[in-house]
Amino acid sequence: MTGVLGWIGGIVRGGGQQPEQLVQSAPQERRRVDLRKAINAVSDVVQNRPRPLRVFDQIHMKTGDMVLQSEMIADWADGKRLAFIGDGDAISVCVAYLRARDVLNFGPSHITVFDFDERTVEAVMNFADRERIANLDARLYNVLDAMEPGELFDCFYTNPPWGASNNGESVNVFVERGMEATGHAGEGVVVIADDDDLDWPKQVLASVQGFAARQGFYVSRMQRKLHEYHLDDAPELKSCNLYLAALPGNPARAASVGITDPARLEHFYGLSQEPRVRYVRARKRLDYGVAHEDEYELELLDSGRE
Questions:
Q1: Which of 128, 142, 180, 227 could form a disulfide with 133 if both were Cys (CB 3.0 to 4.6 A apart)?
Q2: How high is the pLDDT of residue 285?
Q3: pLDDT at residue 286 in the model
């Protein structure tokens, strides 16, 4: 792809351009993007999202990579209905916000986020309401439950638990729900671990590609080692974009059902961490852009001093 990645490569090599010259989308008719405005917009989103829960393998992508990812996903899903199967990173909000702020002149026609974390759902909905983003919404949903029939999307995006301890089966569950969201006739982007020095990311990639093939999907392309994360125990671990597309005439599958097979649930969120939680509930509405009251205490000035 010749979008932001090509321009950022020029920056690293010392191209010397001004910020408004640094980012350009692939199609020639699309205008250049003001990188400063793009970064500031994504910063607004980062301020709004809840903190990750590592027990559920929630790990946030670094902000610079979120800017690049948002442009690529907006380009890929331009004019389409896009379903996010989970979205702790808030890429969905970035994509919608960059378009709403006219930082990008392309993007999905509608975005719906399906997430089992009520904090994420509320953060998406509150941000969409505050910024008047009419084509962004979110629903409380656990991937182990059947997808509701009826509504279909053109494409899906997921950055699931990476399946290091279960050979990618947790990834396959999220991918399966994404395929169902498109009626097994659309496209998808799967964000998944990518590391040349470790065995398990290769095994997971093979597992996911095999699962996709059995579902009538093929790998249309792959963008390797794009993203970095706030990951203390593996700061060098990166992820890739794996693009899937349904084969022409891919037959419809049986109606969506809940997932209860113990073999698919084993080590779902990591070693010996099987799913036991249906939803993460928000105890109270938080303003994620300011410090929480339980993070600090006030030591007052001595009112009696002269």
A1: 128
A2: 63
A3: 59
Q: Which residues contact 207 (CB under 8 A, 6 or more apart)?
A: 163, 167, 168, 169, 171, 172
Residue 153, class by beta-carbon neighbours within 10 Å (0-12 exposed, 13-18 middle, 19+ buried)?
buried
Note the pLDDT of residue 56: 84
Q: In what order do the strands lie in the sheet with 110-115?
A: 136-140, 110-115, 81-85, 155-158, 187-194, 238-246, 217-227
Beta pairing, strands 238-246 & 187-194 = antiparallel
pLDDT digits (tens, 9 = 90+) for 64-92: 999 999 999 999 999 999 999 999 999 99
- At residue 194, the pLDDT reads 96
Task: Write out the DSSP string of the chain.
Answer: --SHHHHHHHHHTT----GGGSEE-SSTTSPEE-HHHHHHHHHHHHHHSPPP-GGGT--PBPHHHHHHHHHHHHHHTTTSEEEEE--TT-HHHHHHHHHHTTSSS---SEEEEEESBHHHHHHHHHHHHHTT-TTEEEEE--TTSPPPSS---SEEEE-----TTTTTHHHHHHHHHHHHHTTTSSEEEEEEEE-TT-HHHHHHHHHHHHHHHHTTEEEEEEEEEEE-B--TT-TT-EEEEEEEEEPTTPPPPPPP-----HHHHTTTTSTT-----S-B--SS---TTS--GGG-------TT--
- 3-state secondary structure string across 94-141: HHHHHHHCCCCCCCCCEEEEEECEHHHHHHHHHHHHHCCCCCEEEEEC
- Mean pLDDT of all residues in 268-280: 88
Token couple for 26: 């692939």
